[in-house]
Amino acid sequence: MSKLMITNLNHDFQNRKSFVVFVWSDDPSKHLGLEVPFGTALSDVEQEAEKAVSALAQELSRAEIVLLPNL
After folding, report:
1. What's the sign of the alpha-carbon dihedral 61, 19, 9, 37?
2. Closest by alpha carbon to 52, among 31, 68, 37?
3. By CB distance 3.0 to 4.6 Å, which of 6, 36, 67, 69 could disulfide with 48?
4. Edge-to-edge strand order for the sheet containing 17-24?
5. Residue 1 has pLDDT above 90, yes or no
6. b/e map of 52-68 (b: 16 or more CB within 10 Å)?
7. pLDDT tens readout for residues 10-64
8. Phi and psi of 26, rounded to 5°?
9. Listed residue (22, 20, 33, 24) closest to 3, CA to CA
């Protein structure tokens, strides 16, 4: 089973946003960046990252995939 490893926690103070960056354990060329609550502490990053991944999975499960015209 592949694991998503948290490699970065970034804070954008100007825009008051924070992001986590993941890398797949079995394919380091695959990356994913997701927003977490601004100012997330290192002690809370795993919990907030899990929430962000869950929210993305829910959003993707409801998304409609369409082909753009002219492709």
Report:
1. negative
2. 37
3. 36
4. 4-12, 17-24, 27-36
5. no
6. beeeeeeeeeeeeeeee
7. 999 999 999 999 999 999 999 999 999 999 999 999 999 999 999 999 999 999 9
8. -95, 0
9. 24
